[in-house]
Amino acid sequence: MQRDDLSDTTRRAVLKATAGALGVAATGTASAHEWGSSSTTTAVEGSDAGGDDVPGGHGDARPVGYHALGSAGPATDNPDTESRNPHYGAMTEIRTHGDYAYVGFFSSDSPTPGRGMAILDISDYNSATSDADLDSANLSVVSFLRNNSTGTAVMDLKVSDDGDYVFLGTQPYTALFPSPTADPVAAASKSEAGDPTPNTADDSDTIVPGAVVAVDVSDKANPETVGAIQISGTGVHNLFHHRIGGDEYVFAVHDLNDGTEGMYVLRFDRSSGQLELVNRWSLSGDTRQGELNPDMLYIHDVEVQDDPITGRPTAYLGYWGAGLQVLDVSNPEDIVLKAHFDMNGTGRCHFTSPAPELVETSQGTKRLAVASHETPDDSADADGTGNVYLVDASGIYEEDAEAGLAIDTEGTNDAGVPELRAIGNWEWQKKQSAGGENEISFGNFELSPHNSDVVVDDAGDVWVHQAHYHGGVRFLRLVDEDEGFSLEEQGFSRPKYSTPEESRMEGLSSVVPNCWAAVESNGITFASDINQGVHAIKADDISVGGAPPTADVGVSDDGSLFTAGQTDMVDLSVFPGRYDSLYVRDRLPTSWGVVGGDDHSTYEAGGSLFVEAADTAGIGDGFTYFAEAPASSGSFTFGPVEVSPDGETWHAVPGTIRSNVVLGQSTSLGTAAGAAGIAAHQRDRIVDSVGDVLGRDE
């Protein structure tokens, strides 16, 4: 399916399928996006919530940066001037990792064609230590990833734990943006003149339609597509990367109602770029257990976390009409349902995300998560623009009570799992006030919440950085009072600049702002705006601080080939970047043992064994430990090394993943090389090394 555009027949089929899904909203299985609409609304009735809460208004928050993504390089000083050099098309998801932000493109048109993703440098904001530092901070585009498939949208993206890879979820939805000119000569001229990518000689598709696409971003100036796997029908709407044991997985959501929807679990091999399907899960079962049947519901979003109590990889799955589903995915081939939240009976569970750590409250320690609506229009079965629920997820594991979590559930449901309870909820606008006046009117999701980021600050306060489409960015805080909990807005920002009408999203809504996602780094919120670009926003009540480390770690092993019981001496040299010192730990397979070294502790989480240095490491400080090879043969992944400024929130360091091969007593050359799972030239090197060890010539 190497193609530059959708055929007219395919385009009509996609739009027809989407419209059909929207037509079953009453059953709770509607599509979350009204791609078939032709609205180009520029103003939304009822969107002026009062006071300064209007497009362009701000309350207890202020913009501190903006890039329209029109071209590479830094943004101009004047945001209105910047907005006149826009990206022609639409932006989707934004995620940050370290000093970089990654933004997906729904569509690209002349004069900025051929874009799939932008990489931005946000280091000015991560380096800030005070609000005053933000006055001179700037966003800068480092590079763009090419998208030669003009009929394909990058709907979602997620970054690997070490920041070396980005995974894109693509769908054939750009039929809603004007197609490039039918004149092939003119089209070629436009593409050559306006192609923003550094690899202009590459004329292959770097974005695959309806797929998960793996992109190597270790060189930020030259992102490179290294692998892809296509998913049936309309492809992948959302996805998430997570490391389980020595393997990397991508959890990909195929959303539409065609009988193949579900959460597809893919194993990723860095050496080959291969993505291998290992399971597909829905409420009707999973393919590995042979229980899946075609009676499936619309599904939307997923995030995965190593649980802070059990260490088990745990997925929070937005299942639309079926609410929030919490899953134990520690064995990706045998996924176990652990809990459910029914959205207070309203369905439309669009976005879910767990808090990054346990939270201390007046009612005890709790595990929390966000589950939010997406509301298409004022005719939806809802009383307003859509709720953001803060869910008490304490009690999803048997170990929770023993660990001292304050468990408060609704009991178990028909599936035999805990039914979770919301401890707070927030909604921007109601359809009607108590007196029946001020009814709002909207369509095309314009007044709906969308994606968010859950953050626990240094004071232990829980914040939800909420993208809210035309509502801009809303800052919600968990308020813990004697009478109970509530989720309350503490500020908002609705940046509105002078982006040309023709550069905005046609076919859905051209309103500004139109914020898709919001993520936090160092106390700054970065928001992707469908029609405007990327905003940096500072809320008054959120302090600058907590920037991610930019550490380098040198790793020295005894070697990469071991016999059973042999010891590997591992030396780590730490250069902590913007911090004076950092905590450090290495990650290795649970079948290996740690048998000595500098003062350390060991523990298991996420299917791996961690060895953590007892003391923090400053510039050039080292940490040494000894790992003992297991009796079983094969190839084992060590790393990535992780660092932390506080010993609680860990950040993987790029370039610290290694592969060690163990020769068991019954291991043959073919078995050892095959088990390595690495590129051909590396496999040849291993065979040569094994031959030397065993004294063989072959």
Task: Report on this structure.
The structure is a single chain. The protein is mainly beta and 698 residues long. The protein has 2 domains: 8-58 and 65-420 and 432-539, Methylamine Dehydrogenase, Chain H (7 Propeller); 552-694, Immunoglobulin-like (Sandwich), CATH 2.60.40.10. Helices cover 9% and strands 39% of the residues. The protein contains 7 helices and 45 strands. It has a 5-stranded antiparallel sheet, with no helix packed on it. α6 (669-676) runs antiparallel to α7. The model is unreliable at 1-41, 179-203 and 666-698 (pLDDT under 50).
Set down the secondary structure blueprint.
Elements: H1 8-22, E1 58-59, E2 61-67, E3 73-74, H2 79-83, E4 89-97, E5 100-108, E6 115-121, H3 123-126, E7 140-146, E8 153-159, E9 165-171, H4 184-194, E10 211-216, E11 224-230, E12 238-244, E13 247-254, E14 262-268, E15 275-282, E16 285-286, E17 301-306, E18 313-318, E19 324-328, E20 336-341, E21 349-354, E22 359-361, E23 364-366, E24 368-373, E25 387-392, H5 399-402, E26 421-427, E27 452-456, E28 462-467, E29 473-481, E30 484-493, E31 515-521, E32 524-529, E33 533-539, E34 552-556, E35 561-563, E36 567-575, E37 583-589, E38 593-597, E39 600-605, E40 608-613, E41 621-628, E42 634-638, E43 642-644, E44 651-652, E45 658-663, H6 669-676, H7 680-694
Parallel strand pairs: 35-45
Antiparallel strand pairs: 1-30, 2-33, 3-7, 4-5, 5-6, 6-7, 8-9, 9-10, 10-11, 12-13, 13-14, 14-15, 15-16, 17-18, 18-19, 19-20, 21-24, 22-23, 24-25, 25-26, 27-28, 28-29, 29-30, 31-32, 32-33, 34-36, 36-41, 37-40, 37-43, 38-41, 39-40, 42-45, 43-44
Helix pairs in contact: 6-7
